[in-house]
Amino acid sequence: MYVLKFFACIVLIGCIKAKTLDDLKNNYLEMIVKCTSKYPITDEDLELLKTGDMGDKESTKCLFACVYKKTGMMDDKGMLDVDQTNKIVQTYFSDNSEELKKGLAYTEACKSVNDAPVTDGDRGCDRAALLFKCTTENLPAVKYCFFLELNDETIMPLA
C-alpha cells in the first residue's frame, strides 16, 4: 500500500496553498487513482520518485502524463498547456504574490519542454518526464514534498 499524496506536489507546482487544500488534494488523489489503474508503479519506481528521479519506465512516465492531462497542465496533444497552467497558478496563489511569482516563473522555465523532441507523439509520456525533471530542478521544494507527504496515509495498492 502506498500514499499518492506526493503526486499533488508534483502535479500542481510544488506544495500548494490552495483555497481549499483538502478539496484540491482529494481531486488530485482521485485522478491519480484513476491513472494508476492504467499505469501502475512498483516499489522501486516509488523509491526512485522519492529521490526526484522518474527513471525511464514507460508506465511511470505515462502515469504522470495521465495526471498532467487530467489536471489541465498538459493538453490532449501531450504538450504543456502554458496558459492553463498559469491559470491554475493564478487561481491558487492569487492571495500570495511571492508564491504567484514563483509559480509563473516555473511555467516560464518549463515551457521549453514543448520544444523538445519526443518519440511518443501526442501520448505525452516523454514530455511528462521532461516536465517532471524541469519541476524538480526549478522547484526544489517538490523533493521536500516527497518526504513530507509520502506515508501520510494509505489509499491504494500499487503493482
UniProtKB/TrEMBL annotation:
It comes from Manduca sexta. This is Odorant binding protein 9. Keywords: Signal. GO terms for molecular function: odorant binding. Residues 1-18 form the signal peptide. Pfam families: PBP_GOBP. PANTHER family: ODORANT BINDING PROTEIN-RELATED. The keyword Nuclease does not apply. InterPro entries: PBP/GOBP. One of its GO terms (biological process) is sensory perception of smell. One of its GO terms (cellular component) is extracellular space. The keyword Signal applies.
